[in-house]
Amino acid sequence: MSKNVSIILSTYNEKLSIEHTIAELIKYIPGVEIIVVDDNSPDGTLEIIKKINYDNLKILSRKKTKGLASAFLLGLINARGDVIGWVDSNMGDVVRKFPEMLKILEDSDIVVLSRYVAGGDDKRNRIRVIASYMLNKFSKFILRSKISDLSSGIFVMKKKVLNDVVPIAKGHGEFMIEFLYQAEKKGNKILEIPYIHPIDAEGNSKSFPNIFKFMQHGFFYLIRILQSIIRN
């Protein structure tokens, strides 16, 4: 199956982690197609990627458009694999879970790494842990979903899922909640396996540069959840 796998990475100022993540993908998924969508990183991320010698590395550089959701959609458009996945560019250490995910995917449609099933955990700072937990509890209840970690963002799926649902390329990570919810409503089989979210390697993430920005993102997540119900 690995010869038909495409993994999408979205990058913005990831010079400290991108080489490791790409190396791990090549190591654990032989023959993987890696699609990097870079949003004009000023820290030299793009230059580092261009020096990587790997034939199945596709680099898409954007200068006029930014955003996680639209980056994912652009990656989808350019993916050749029958299986498509996504992982945060600074979370290379969790790539070792992908072989297990791909094996499980043979009998399902989407496999998600989850912090909220038995064996999962979240090692980030306490504010982010509590906020993510409450967001997912709220999302699961409001959407009447069976998925425990709707905001995980680390997954693999069969490309045929896109026949039922495509992501709405707007916003930050909240687009993934709606995408998984809509895929579930269309009858796709979604399984979760546990993983431990590590401490942020570079301190606060881009979604938590400060408490105001963090709360702003949380508000957008809540709005998107309600919109998902209306659109359904």
What is the oligomer described by this structure?
Answer: single chain
Q: Helix-strand pattern, N to C?
A: EHEHEHEHEEHEHEEH
Radius of gyration: 17 Å
Regions with pLDDT < 50 over 5+ consecutive residues? none
From the N-terminal CA to the C-terminal CA, the straight-line distance is 33 Å
The average pLDDT is: 88
What CATH first level would be assigned?
Alpha Beta
Q: How helical, in percent, are the residues?
A: 25-40%
CATH H-tier superfamily: Spore Coat Polysaccharide Biosynthesis Protein SpsA, Chain A
The CATH level-2 architecture is identified as Alpha-Beta Complex
Chart the SSEs and their pairings.
Layout: E1 5-11, H1 18-28, E2 33-38, H2 45-50, E3 57-61, H3 68-78, E4 83-86, H4 98-105, E5 110-114, E6 121-122, H5 126-143, E7 155-158, H6 174-185, E8 190-194, E9 196-197, H7 211-231
Parallel strand pairs: 1-2, 1-4, 2-3, 5-8, 6-9
Antiparallel strand pairs: 4-7, 5-7
Explain what the structure shows.
By secondary structure, this protein is an alpha/beta fold. The protein has a single domain, classed as Spore Coat Polysaccharide Biosynthesis Protein SpsA, Chain A (Alpha-Beta Complex), CATH 3.90.550. It has helices at 18-28, 45-50, 68-78, 98-105, 126-143, 174-185, 211-231, and strands at 5-11, 33-38, 57-61, 83-86, 110-114, 121-122, 155-158, 190-194, 196-197. The strands form two sheets. A seven-stranded mixed beta sheet has the order 3-2-1-4-7-5-8, with helices on both faces. Strand 1 (5-11), helix 1 (18-28) and strand 2 (33-38) form a beta-alpha-beta unit. The radius of gyration is 17 Å and the shape is globular.
